[in-house]
Amino acid sequence: MSEHGGNVLEMALKIGTDAANIIDFSANINPLGMPDSLKVAIVEQLARAEHYPDVEYRQLHSALARAHHCLPENIMAGNGATELIYAVVEYLQPRTAMLLTPGFAEYRRALHRAGCQIHDYAMSEADGYQPDERLLSVLEKQRPDCLFLATPNNPTGLMPDPALLQAIVQCCHQLQIALIVDEAFIDFLPDAPGLTPQLADFPRLYVLRSLTKFFAIPGLRLGYLLSGDLAAIRQMKQQREPWTINAFAALAGEIILDDQPYIQATHQWLEQQQHWLYQELCQITALQVWQGTANYIFLRCLKPEIDLQPALLQHHILIRHCANYPGLTRDHYRVAIKSAADNQQLITALRQVFSHG
């Protein structure tokens, strides 16, 4: 069983159908699809495949630096944000780390690979699956070498309180704790600046970003890491294997951040569909729903006798079960927000499942 969403082929085989027949709500990918600007650029520059990419990816790093008003030396691009999670852990070599649970599985896997001892900070339904002031006192007491924090969180889609987030940044700075903040989904929040403007003030702050979800290029794989610690970025670049980013992923990073019409269209789609889908899910009394900020919604099935993922699979709809997230159960799920038509099919299928359950 995959630890991630998007395992459509596996699920299609399970019910004896073609993967194309399944609507995939398990992977949080922009339903607008790859930007036309990138499609045109790839077709026009197919010959890029005939040459090695620049091993330093100078044009890519320059484009990312322009987008974030920083130096190319502040940035390391990678084969999706996942490569960079492993890179920063390998660089830091932490002996102890703190993870907020539930959270993205790759932080734990990267830390385990490095032989790091992990302390879990459990978030529960009682506290709304959000950190609070208690986290500051736990950091003060345990003083881990590093803390991973996702803004917004995956799988809940929730953003921490802005004042608390700033207090966490300050606390980690004072205690010399390396803070790795995963902003993989923050582009879906049009008014969220993220922490990149503060890199110069906090040299042990590492910010992970992804272009895979927002720009619908999961098959290309592209993410990047930002830090004010130039020596750290330089060393990570030296330690990595060469050419981990393919020519078309590099091309994507050079052009898509300038595609303002696509970015605006995405924010308009999400504003409409996020509100609609959340309201419709809330009308289903068999579900408890959390109001997230990103392009997915976290929920709990209140009828434990219904196994929701296979039940919806019979309707050719795949959702992400969250049982393998520490702190969650087989009744917790995450659904992507998709097109209006797909979202309507999800609601229709859910109503049918619960009416027969």
Automatic annotation (TrEMBL):
Coiled-coil regions listed in the entry: none
Q: Which UniProt keywords apply?
A: Cobalamin biosynthesis, Lyase, Pyridoxal phosphate
Which top-rank group of organisms is this from? Bacteria
Q: Which CDD domains match?
A: AAT_like
CC cofactor = pyridoxal 5'-phosphate
Q: What GO MF terms are annotated?
A: threonine-phosphate decarboxylase activity
What does it catalyze?
A: O-phospho-L-threonine + H(+) = (R)-1-aminopropan-2-yl phosphate + CO2
Entry keyword Lyase: yes
Q: What is its EC number?
A: 4.1.1.81
Q: Which InterPro entries does the annotation name?
A: Aminotransferase_I/II_large (IPR004839), CobD (IPR005860), NHTrfase_class1_PyrdxlP-BS (IPR004838), PyrdxlP-dep_Trfase (IPR015424), PyrdxlP-dep_Trfase_major (IPR015421), PyrdxlP-dep_Trfase_small (IPR015422)
| Domain called Aminotransferase class I/classII large: residue spans | 21-350
Q: In which pathway does it act?
A: Cofactor biosynthesis; adenosylcobalamin biosynthesis
By its UniProt entry, which Pfam families does this protein fall under? Aminotran_1_2
In the UniProt record, does the keyword Lyase occur? yes
Relate the protein's function as given in its record.
Answer: Decarboxylates L-threonine-O-3-phosphate to yield (R)-1-amino-2-propanol O-2-phosphate, the precursor for the linkage between the nucleotide loop and the corrin ring in cobalamin.
PANTHER family given in the database record: HISTIDINOL-PHOSPHATE AMINOTRANSFERASE-RELATED (PTHR42885), THREONINE-PHOSPHATE DECARBOXYLASE (PTHR42885:SF1)
NCBIfam families per the record? L_thr_O3P_dcar
This chain's protein is named: threonine-phosphate decarboxylase
Kindly list the organism's lineage. Answer: Bacteria, Pseudomonadati, Pseudomonadota, Gammaproteobacteria, Enterobacterales
